[in-house]
C-alpha cells in the first residue's frame, strides 16, 4: 500500500490505521463533528467516513487539480481548497462541505491555504509575490489580502491558535527552518523552536496547550515526501518537545490542520516508498 491514513491517540501513544490504499493520498483534516476525515489525491478531494472508511469523492466541479492545502470551516459547513485548474497556479476556493461549485477567494496567485480563523471569518495562507514567500490573510466577506509577514527566507504553514490571537507558521528567516508565531492582527514574530532539525507545519491543539508539527532531519531542504521524519509535540507551558512518532512520510503527512475536535487524537498519513509498491 502506498498510503496509510492513520490516527494517533495522545493519551496512549497508539496508532490506528484507518485506511490503506495504493493511491497517493495526503493531508487529512478532521470534520468538526468528528465522524470523518478529508484528504486529497490525484487532484481530487475525498471524504473518509470513520464508521466505514473509504475514499468517497467530493464534487469540486471544475476544480480538478487540488493540492494538499485544504480544510474545513469551524462550523463544518464549508470546504476550502487550493486548486490550479483555472489559474495555472495554486488559488484558494471555498465550496459547500458536501460538494458543489467553488467560489474563488484569492485574486493573486500562487496562494496556498493553511488556516481558518476560529470565528470563521478569515483565511490564512502562504503567497508567493514579487518579494518572495509570505503569510497573508483575507476576509471571506471580501476585500484585498492583508500582508502579515514576508522577506528573508521561506514562509509556510500558517495555522491559527484556538483563541484566534496568534498565527503559527514555519520559516527559515534566521537560517534554519523553525516554528514561529505572530499576532493575528500583526506585530513582531516570536521564534518558538530552536534546534538543528527542519521543523514544518505547526498545528496548535484545540486546548491551546501544545503544538503538533512535522520534523525533518537537519539540513533537509524544503518539505520533500518519502523521508524519515518525526511527529513532535511542543508543550507551551514549559517549551519542552516530545517526539510522538518516527515514520516514513514528509510532504502530505500533516500539511494542514489535523486534530480531532476534542484534541484527543490527530490524523496523519504515512507512506511506503514508491518503488516498494
Report on this structure.
With 277 residues, the protein is mainly beta. The protein has one domain: Neuraminidase, CATH 2.120.10. Helices cover 0% and strands 49% of the residues. The chain has strands spanning 3-9, 15-21, 26-30, 36-41, 44-49, 56-58, 71-72, 78-83, 91-96, 103-104, 111-116, 122-129, 132-139, 146-150, 155-160, 166-171, 178-183, 190-191, 198-204, 210-216, 227-235, 241-249, 265-271. A hairpin with a 6-residue loop joins strand 9 (91-96) and strand 10. InterPro entries: 6-blade_b-propeller_TolB-like, WD40. This is Periplasmic component of the Tol biopolymer transport system.
Task: Output the structural class.
Answer: mainly beta
Termini, distance in Å?
A: 7 Å
According to DSSP, the number of beta strands is 23
Q: What is the N-to-C succession of helices and strands?
A: EEEEEEEEEEEEEEEEEEEEEEE
Strand residue content? over 45%
Shape by Cα distribution: globular
Number of domains: 1
Main sheet characteristics: 4 strands, antiparallel
Could you provide a short overview of the structure?
By secondary structure, the chain is mainly beta. Helices cover 0% and strands 49% of the residues.
Topology:
Layout: E1 3-9, E2 15-21, E3 26-30, E4 36-41, E5 44-49, E6 56-58, E7 71-72, E8 78-83, E9 91-96, E10 103-104, E11 111-116, E12 122-129, E13 132-139, E14 146-150, E15 155-160, E16 166-171, E17 178-183, E18 190-191, E19 198-204, E20 210-216, E21 227-235, E22 241-249, E23 265-271
Antiparallel strand pairs: 1-2, 1-23, 3-4, 4-5, 5-6, 7-8, 8-9, 9-10, 11-12, 12-13, 13-14, 15-16, 16-17, 17-18, 19-20, 20-21, 21-22
Amino acid at each position: 500500500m502506498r498510503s496509510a491514513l492513520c490516527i494517533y491517540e495522545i493519551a496512549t501513544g497508539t496508532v490506528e490505521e484507518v485506511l490503506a490504499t495504493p493511491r497517493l493520498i495526503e493531508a487529512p483534516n478532521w470534520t468538526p463533528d468528528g465522524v470523518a476525515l478529508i484528504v486529497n489525491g490525484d487532484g481530487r478531494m475525498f471524504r473518509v467516513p470513520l464508521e466505514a472508511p473509504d475514499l468517497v469523492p467530493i464534487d469540486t466541479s471544475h476544480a480538478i487539480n487540488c493540492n494538499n492545502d485544504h480544510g474545513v470551516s469551524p462550523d463544518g459547513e464549508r470546504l476550502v481548497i487550493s486548486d490550479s485548474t483555472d489559474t495555472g497556479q495554486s488559488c484558494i476556493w471555498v465550496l459547500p462541505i458536501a460538494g458543489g461549485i467553488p467560489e474563488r477567494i484569492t485574486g493573486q496567485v500562487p496562494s496556498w491555504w493553511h488556516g481558518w480563523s476560529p470565528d470563521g471569518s478569515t483565511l490564512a495562507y502562504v503567497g508567493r509575490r514579487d518579494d518572495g514567500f509570505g503569510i497573508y490573510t483575507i476576509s471571506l466577506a471580501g476585500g484585498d489580502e492583508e500582508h502579515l509577514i514576508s522577506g528573508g527566507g521561506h514562509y509556510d504553514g500558517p495555522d491559527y491558535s484556538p483563541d484566534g490571537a496568534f498565527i503559527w507558521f514555519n520559516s527559515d528567516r534566521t537560517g534554519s527552518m523553525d516554528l514561529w508565531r505572530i499576532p493575528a492582527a500583526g506585530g513582531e514574530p516570536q521564534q518558538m523552536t530552536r534546534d538543528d532539525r527542519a521543523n514544518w507545519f505547526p498545528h496548535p491543539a484545540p486546548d491551546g496547550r501544545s503544538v503538533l508539527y512535522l520534523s525533518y532531519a537537519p539540513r533537509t531542504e524544503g518539505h520533500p515526501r518519502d523521508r524519515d521524519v518525526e511527529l513532535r509535540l511542543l508543550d507551551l507551558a514549559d517549551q519542552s518537545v516530545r517526539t510522538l512518532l518516527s515514520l516514513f512520510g514528509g510532504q502530505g503527512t500533516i500539511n494542514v490542520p489535523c486534530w480531532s475536535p476534542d484534541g484527543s487524537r490527530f490524523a496523519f498519513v504515512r507512506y511506503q516508498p514508491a518503488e516498494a509498491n
